[in-house]
Amino acid sequence: MVMGVSINQIRKISLGLQVSTLLTYMFGFTALKLSGSKKEGIQRHGKINTLGYTLGALSLLYMMYSGLRLIIARAAPSIMYIHGTFGLITLALSSLFVANRWSWKTIKNMRTLVVLFLSTFSGGVYMFSRLYKQRTPAEKSE
Ligand code: HEM
């Protein structure tokens, strides 16, 4: 329990935030493609995707907390380290985009980011399916 909320409830909120991030990115891509003017489309795409990044960053706070607890309890599955490494790279690259580092904002880097994000997301969904409802030693000691 964290402030009266069960860990499984927070887990579901965190998953909801990541799914919202994914949907926002899809929306941002559609906005770019549907926009009449290229300049306007790029601006809209940037704003929408920054919102998606913020939603994902909120969920990251929980994931860091949960990761640390799993490591301390020696209950971390090996996929967590792979997921975390991919996640940190994804985060670093997307931060460069949000911080408007134009030299990094290439189509090639955006495609790389899509692959990284989707791989990290899939690993996260797999972990969710393993951890949801299953009480880890860290949770049992609460
Ligand atoms: C863009 C980056 C990331 C994405 C898209 C992502 C996605 C997800 C998703 C969808 C879940 C399942 C829902 C949940 O339980 O929260 C998850 C779980 C988790 N992620 Fe991430 N993640 C990212 C970055 C990270 C990073 C950087 C770390 C650690 C350093 C991390 C550690 C974890 C842990 C420990 C869990 C299991 C949490 C739990 O259910 O108790 N993730 N991630």
UniProtKB/TrEMBL annotation:
Stretches that traverse the bilayer: 13-32, 53-72, 78-100, 112-132
Alphabetic keyword roster: Membrane, Transmembrane, Transmembrane helix
Superkingdom of source: Archaea
Official protein name in the record: Cytochrome b561 domain-containing protein
